[in-house]
Amino acid sequence: MAKFKIATPAGLSFTTAGAGDYGYEMEDLAYLDAEIVEGPTDEDGFIAFAQDADAIYAKGMRFSKKVVDALPERCRGIVLGSVGVDSVDVKAATARGMPVTNCPDTFIEEVADHAMMMLLSTHRRTVEQDRLVREGRWREGRTPLLQMPRLMGLTLGLISFGHVARAVARRAKAFGLRIMAYDPFIEELVMVEHGVLPSTLKEVLSQSDFVSMHAPARPEVEGMLGEEHFRLMKPTAVFINTGRGPTVQETALIKALDEKWIAYAGLDVLEQEPPGNNNPLLSMNNVILSAHTASASARFDPARRRHVGRELALLLEGKWPMSCVNPAVLQQTKLRRWQPVSMERGPNS
User: Fold this and answer.
1) Total structural domains within the chain
2) Which of 187, 273, 336, 337 is catalytic?
3) Given phi > 0 = left and psi -120 to 50 = alpha, else beta, which region is 248?
4) pLDDT tens per residue across span 242-295
5) Is 128 annotated as catalytic?
6) Catalytic residue status for 123
């Protein structure tokens, strides 16, 4: 029996590898005499299974308040292999003084690329153009584009200005876009340093030709955008979401697209995933969809899983993790600070 037990629900999380394959995670754990052990995916079963766990690798199920509250005192933290932390009740973990970590900067460039792809594809009506050619309607392709303004000089509005939004801003500037952003938690000087105009939410919605949603999956931003927000947008505007589906009231977005309050949407995320066959978005010609794949690339799985392994190793060594989403708890734990540099970004990201 290994010295340290890392409990994880059986099954997969993003990865295409088989269950039980933890080679990447174990690269930083093997020398610690630690093992990752799979358990049940139901709440009661996992609670019983995790009573001797030294850390939790959170995947494959929701870690509700019930689960978090039942974790043993010896458990040093909950580690996620994703950017979003909505599958864990962070508030409950914080109340227990238990660190929760994520992978905040492993997929930034990929998601920014995807957002920019959505912007370009919706603006130049890529799917529609492809369909016209395949249907033998070659000569009709130019007509809709003659109504489109030149991309250079148009305005991109960013909702939230975290790492991905900043990466999108860098790409958009190369295309000559004017960029504005709304984020009440970011200093305006940070936006200015990136050549972005600090703005109110109303200004972003009403002035932008493209509105790109990057708000994180947090309870306070669930349903953040509703009918009143889409009515503020230009009738020619495009809405892009590569963040989280639940931040948008989907019925309001559908109504905005159907009644032409806005012109188009590019969506990588939806309120319910995968969508039901009766979701109107699936039959709308003014929508481009992808299957929550913005973060996907060849480095996706190795990078995030190695990050998980590093975080688990730090916890088991009695050290602060690198990417704690509730850092206020760290001072209350027996874990020790060791980082000689800022904790804002992890290594090899």
Assistant:
1) 2
2) 273
3) beta
4) 999 999 999 999 999 999 999 999 999 999 999 999 999 999 999 999 999 999
5) no
6) no
Three-class SS of residue 214? coil
CA angle 187, 190, 195 (to 5 degrees): 135
- β-partners of residue 77 are none
At 156, list the tokens.
Answer: 């991109």
Q: Which residues pair with 182 in a beta bridge?
A: 159
Which one from 76, 178, 244, 306 is the annotated catalytic residue?
A: 244
Same domain, 179 and 315: no
pLDDT in tens, 182-233: 999 999 999 999 999 999 999 999 999 999 999 987 778 889 999 999 999 9
Among 231, 292, 317, 345, the active-site one is: 292
Query: Angle at the Cα of 92 (from 60 to 247), degrees rounded to 5?
Result: 65
Task: Report the SS3 class of residue 259.
Answer: coil
Amino acid letter, 14: F
pTM score over 0.85: yes
Instruction: Kindly state the tokens that stand for 18.
Output: 């088989």
* Phi, psi (degrees; rounded to nearest 5) at 209: -85, -25
In a shared domain, residues 68 and 190? no
The three-point CA angle 307-327-303 to 5° equals 10
Looking at 208-299, list the stretches that DSSP marks H as alpha helix, in order from N- to C-terminal side.
227-230, 250-258
Other C-beta atoms within 10 Å of 254: how many?
17
Which of 289, 307, 324 lies at the terminal end of a domain, its last residue?
289
| Preceding amide of 274 cis, omega within 30 | yes
Strand partners, 154: none
Query: Looking at the domain assignment, is residue 130 inside a domain?
Result: yes
Q: Could you confirm whether 273 is annotated as catalytic?
A: yes
